[in-house]
Amino acid sequence: MRTSQSDKLHKYLASLQELRAEKNELEARLEKINEALAEAPGARVRGGRRSAGRRGPGRRRNGLSLRAAVVQVTKSRALTKPEILEAVKKIGYKFATKDPMNSLNAMLYAPANKFRNQNGKFAPR
């Protein structure tokens, strides 16, 4: 009985070694492919990986979150949604969406809402 278990263990360990060797070969090959792509015209590195083209616009980078921008523009007085949208844009917040009012609505009416609605005008709580 011991020889059977010993044989199984030996086969398992041999299989592990084969898998590790194959993994090392694949990693070496992938490294060569990445080097070749890095030398290709127009290629650039993103997040440690090589990329041979431009992706979509991605998320815009703002100094403030939308919530912080809304707090900033409504702290002195309550504003309607269109007024908030214009004020937020005026202070430099950039929306990555085609319909910024959608994002504003989602934030203003979220369950963890930090704004109060008084007759259609919003202000921080």
Describe this protein's structure.
- The protein is mainly alpha-helical.
- The protein has 2 domains: 2-51; 66-124, no CATH class.
- Helix content is 53%, strand content 11%.
- β1 (44-46) and β2 form a beta hairpin.
- It is elongated, with a radius of gyration of 28 Å.
- The chain starts with a helix and ends with a strand.
How does the major sheet shape up? 2 strands, antiparallel
Quote the beta fraction.
5-15%
The helix/strand series, from N terminus to C terminus, equals HEEHHHEE
Helix content: 40-55%
What structural category characterises the helix and strand content? mainly alpha
What key phrases describe this protein's structure?
mainly alpha, single chain, 125 residues
Brief rundown of the structure:
With about 120 residues, this protein is mainly alpha-helical. It is about 55% helix and about 10% strand. It starts with a helix and ends with a strand.
Helix and strand layout, with pairings?
Blueprint: H1 2-39, E1 44-46, E2 49-51, H2 66-74, H3 81-90, H4 100-108, E3 115-118, E4 121-124
Antiparallel strand pairs: 1-2, 3-4
